[in-house]
Structure to design on (426 residues):
């Protein structure tokens, strides 16, 4: 949340409109629950909090950097080949992220396996480039990228929190439920939460809560 | 022969791209409103997977892997280019999609107009890149295995999207709680279908 602290310090760069770019994705324009982007590589890695956090951070970095780079090049890219240019930019950034993960958090990068590579085709990144950075200045694109990436990470962390707590009884590998003594009362871990389909159902519940709170998001019949 | 058959059934049912790995979910959710468009997209995905997997297999084994360039010169035995695989795979996929688009437009105009906008969009479908990355991770031993894996994954994806489209067509007539309408209920149904597909997991092939 350090970005929000920075918001208050430099007001000039963060006019009301610019701040909206950053804040909107967290609720009214959430990439996962409203725009339906980037579910592809997201849900398989939310069994534990740690990989989910790493994945969220990686996506945030790639979205922000890709948005800035394509925004800088937006007047140079011929319209017909823009998809390939975007893919090359994103792929180069993902290779960097992959090498960094392999160097510093090797075991997590093994757990994420192919899903780091799949950030390339994560629809959030392509979607934000297509919808936003090709028509806006680099600074705005940066805010948009960080906002969307962080909002995406937020959903991942919420899903991973419930799956890890209910499925394995731990948080960041710390045995929370054991420490609380819940097992002595006869509680058992719900192995179902570890299975991939449960991730979808948890996301559906998040959507349910969010839309009950913000009725304007409810789809019309 | 037996290993090919087992790879095929495994990739269609046990390790289904959507129900086991959630790959290609974006287009799966966006294009599954009617069965007709779902079939079109499913066929296009199968087609592209079948073509890109063998090409990427050759690329992986004769260019990218450690020591893969020995056929060019013995001094390349130490060379490991595998860090380039993301960018190479995605370039091959984008190029292949473009190629497939042109071929289909020339020789099967009816299919081309039926697939419409879906063909170019396949380049950014996670299932395609996912197929290539799984191929790399599982280290298949022959190009035949890689091809069969591509066909199987594609058919599994087709199966999943057609099934959800059929259910969503029916869903129009049911009373879903308002906040769950549309996206929410589709997620829940996909989850339930995933649980159903897990019953295949016990089968050892």
């Amino acid at each position: 949340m350090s970005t929000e602290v920075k918001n208050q310090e430099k007001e000039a760069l963060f006019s009301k409109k610019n701040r909206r770019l950053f804040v909107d994705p967290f609720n009214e324009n959430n990439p996962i629950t409203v725009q339906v982007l980037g579910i592809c590589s997201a849900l398989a890695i939310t069994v534990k909090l740690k990989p989910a956090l790493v994945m969220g951070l990686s996506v945030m970095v790639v979205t922000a950097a890709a948005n800035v780079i394509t925004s800088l090049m937006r007047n140079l890219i011929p319209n017909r080949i823009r998809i390939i240019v975007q893919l090359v930019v994103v792929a180069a950034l993902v290779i960097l992220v992959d090498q960094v993960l392999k160097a510093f958090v090797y075991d997590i990068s093994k757990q994420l396996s192919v899903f780091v590579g799949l950030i390339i085709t994560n629809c959030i990144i392509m979607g934000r480039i297509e919808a936003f950075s090709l028509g806006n200045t680099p600074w705005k694109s940066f805010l948009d990228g960080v906002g969307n990436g962080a909002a995406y990470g937020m959903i991942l962390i919420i899903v991973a929190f419930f799956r890890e707590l209910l499925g394995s009884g731990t948080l960041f590998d710390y045995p929370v439920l054991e420490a609380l003594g819940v097992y002595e009362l006869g509680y058992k871990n719900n192995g179902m939460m570890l299975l991939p389909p449960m991730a979808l159902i948890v996301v559906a519940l998040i959507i349910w809560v969010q839309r009950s709170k913000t009725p304007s998001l409810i789809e019309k019949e | 022969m037996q290993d090919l058959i087992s790879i095929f059934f495994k990739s269609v049912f046990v390790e289904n791209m959507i129900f086991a790995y959630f790959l290609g979910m974006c287009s799966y959710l966006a294009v599954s409103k009617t069965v007709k468009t779902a079939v079109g997209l499913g066929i296009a995905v199968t087609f592209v997977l079948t073509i890109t997997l063998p090409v990427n297999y050759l690329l992986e084994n004769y260019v990218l892997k450690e020591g893969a360039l020995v056929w060019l010169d013995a001094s390349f035995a130490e060379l490991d280019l595998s860090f380039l695989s993301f960018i190479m795979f995605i370039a091959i996929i984008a190029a292949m999609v473009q190629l497939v688009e042109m071929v289909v437009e020339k020789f099967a105009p009816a299919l081309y107009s039926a697939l419409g906008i879906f063909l170019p969009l396949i380049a950014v479908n996670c299932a395609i890149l996912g197929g290539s990355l799984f191929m790399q991770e599982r280290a298949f031993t022959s190009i035949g295995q890689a091809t069969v894996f591509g066909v199987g994954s594609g058919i599994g994806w087709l199966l999943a999207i057609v099934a959800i489209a059929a259910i969503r067509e029916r869903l129009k007539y049911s009373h879903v709680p308002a906040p769950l309408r549309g996206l929410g209920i589709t997620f829940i149904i996909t989850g339930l279908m995933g649980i159903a597909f897990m019953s295949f997991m016990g089968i050892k092939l």
Summary: Residues 138-168 of chain A form the longest helix (31 residues). Chain A touches chain B through 47 residues (CB under 8 Å).
